[in-house]
From TrEMBL:
One Pfam match: Cytochrome_P460
Domain Cytochrome P460 stretches: 42-165
Secretion signal span: 1-25
Native organism taxonomy: Bacteria, Pseudomonadati, Pseudomonadota, Gammaproteobacteria, Lysobacterales
Matching InterPro entries: Cytochrome_P460, Cytochrome_P460_sp
Keyword terms, alphabetized: Signal
Species per Swiss-Prot/TrEMBL record: Dyella telluris
Protein name as it appears in the record: Cytochrome P460 family protein
């Protein structure tokens, strides 16, 4: 009986070690965070609802789409300002290029950036309640670029809770 218990205990310890090693090995790598604000790319953002498309002329020459999480979409539908904590907006941007199939159409070319705004009025009190993230190829842009985010939003969109994007019906 002692041998059976010892064997069972040994097998249990061995299985626990294997499970611990396996779960540790399969954990995703840490998500890169933006400098200054610590914002990360939200999981599943590519499946979020479209808030509005946008077109940027010179100098960037980009097609853009802003998507939002459920909190953002609800706030837009209710025309609720300021946006509630938990609102997350993501702007995807691509270089514009002419369509190969239809010359007068413009289509997305190479991806340029993914930009994120996260509303947390306590954590980001100094920047109107918003944290910002700008990512190129999945990696955060440099600190200098992040330091310009709030100044631009404050100068141009303060009256709309620092958000440029309006809901496209």
């Amino acid at each position: 009986m002692k041998t059976l218990l010892a064997t069972t205990a040994a097998i249990g310890m061995m299985m626990a070690g294997i499970l611990a090693a396996t779960s540790h090995a399969s954990e995703p790598a840490a998500t890169p965070a933006s400098p200054v604000y610590g914002v990360t790319l939200p999981q599943g953002y590519r499946q979020w609802e479209l808030i509005a498309p946008a077109l940027e002329d010179a100098p960037l020459n980009e097609l853009r789409a802003v998507v939002g999480n459920a909190v953002a979409v609800d706030a837009y539908h209710r025309d609720s300002q300021p946006f509630p904590d938990g609102t997350v907006l993501v702007k995807l941007a691509w270089k514009r290029q002419p369509s190969a199939e239809f010359a007068s159409a413009t289509v997305p070319g190479a991806a340029t950036t993914v930009q994120v705004m996260v509303k947390d009025s306590r954590k980001y009190a100094a920047t109107g309640g918003w944290g910002f993230g700008r990512f190129v190829n999945g990696q955060p842009a440099d600190e200098a670029q992040h330091r310009t985010c709030f100044a631009c939003h404050e100068a141009r969109a303060k009256g709309h809770d620092y958000v440029f994007t309006r809901y496209a019906p």
